[in-house]
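Lab meeting notes turned into a lecture example. A postdoc, R.K., suggested we walk through two folding results consecutively so the class can see how the record format repeats. The first protein's sequence and structure tokens come next.
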Amino acid sequence: MGPFRLTPQEARTLTVLLLILLAGLMGMLMWGGDSEPEDNMVVNQHD
């Protein structure tokens, strides 16, 4: 097999998949960094 080549359709599909993966990772990082804000609100109410 020669150099790795993609048809425009394959390249578009790969790009969409990469964007979905990146969006998923960003969402996980944002949700994980918040450390459950609902629990923090409950603690503040008890104070």
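The second example is placed directly after the first for contrast:
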Amino acid sequence: MRLKIRVAAWERRCTRILWTIVFSFTASLCAGATIGINVAGLSQPNTTAQEPDISGAAGPSSYAEFVNGAFGVFNNSTGVIRSQTTDQTFWQNAGISASALSDGASNPRLIYDPNSARWFATEITNTSSGNKILLAASSSSDPTSTPGSWSAISFPAAQAHNEFSYGDFPTLGLDANGVYIAVDNYNGPPQQGADYNNTSSLFSIPKADLISKTPAITNMTAFYGQNYESLGYILQPVIDFNPIKSKAVVVADNYDPLGAMGAINRFNIIGTTASGATLSSTQTTQLTQYAYPPSPRQPNGSGGFSIKPGISIPDDRYASSAYQIGNLIYTVHTVGLPADAVAPSSCAIQWSVLRLTSEDKTELVQQGMITDSNHDYFNPSISANAAGDVVIGYNRSGPNASDGMILSFVAVGSTSNGTISFGSSVQLSTTTVTGFHNSSGLWGDYSSMSPDPSNPSIFWFAQEIPLASSAGLTTGDTWGTEITEIVVPEPKLFVWILAVVLIAGRRRFCESHRFDSTGIIDAAGAPLTPPGRWIPDTDPESH
């Protein structure tokens, strides 16, 4: 009896060890990526904008990219561009008058919604006071812009009677019930030196009203003039493709009037299927402390503490989209390090995963930094899937001549036992430009990582890259974009087959090895091996 118990315990230990091998092998396979399509996207020669503000999304057969001044549609099987138009033409095709666009539009956002098989796009008009939010929905899963293929509406970005009647930096999110837009409130265009008043405006629009034959905002709920201290700085409505949803989620950078940095806010929009939506209380989750991000360094000596013209990036706001998968929310933004420095020396990327509990509390699941002392990391975006794959795309630069150029990278992580582990980053772009600077000096303001609606193992990344100027191959004053298909490994089926083979053969494995918790001893009782060692057994039948 004692022998049978001991053999059974030994077999259980073998099984646990084999499962550990399987899970470790799974994690090592998942922590990598294959690059599929990698093509040039829209660029500054297609528009007059000084920075792109990149937004992109994949549909069933197309990838659409929206940048300041231009809208393009690509075949997502070949990467070949199918159509391209100006943003002015895009909005006029959707029903916005030319007079409403007389001052131009900017800050595009774009999402494909697999639940409704519709695309949603937004921009703001650049009217110096009382500007409008433009919102369009496609009539089908084809994003091509032709007259009538999209339908658009517009509404005030801020309260018209308020001095701060300009809405800037729109963000866009959606879920099963609604489409959500937020703006930051100014008293004029920020690029013209306007002031802000520490408030944001948030809009909740039932999705059914937007995908009807005639889009309407009759049931829209507008939350004008929401204080930073109450909700946070730069409200980012979360994208959630779950077909069942009871409330919308919004995240934001926690605003501390004393200047402390290192927390994220989360609140809900309740009752989003009709008018009269309400906001929940705000919950704050502490993250690792950080500082304001400096200008990224380049090999030409710009950035950091240098006064040489280079590029400037947005602050620590959550500039790119946040995604919810199940009850997990994935976020990423640029921060400055060291956290306690008056003048931080480098840019880093902070990512975090939040869990929404059944009691509607926010828990920090995991957080991390992408950083090293020789480089600056900035302009990130993130997405994930239900299998626990997490993909972060970003720019990297630095002072070294060999690898300090502004490049595009992607890092792919996998989740094992609730913990995300990232493999080595993959470089996506190359350049000879060692010093980039244009008239605005702006870079970004955001990049775009989005999931493929047809394959959960595919993600699409659109990022800004420098183009060489006519003055020489090492100087750049013109931006381009790069569209990349990222395929995360799918070892699951292979690993389960491996697991079945290993576990089925565990008895043979166990019988061919002897293990003793006290070590192997000789006839006199002297230890021959340390405790806990694996010893091949040349005569398994002897026991």
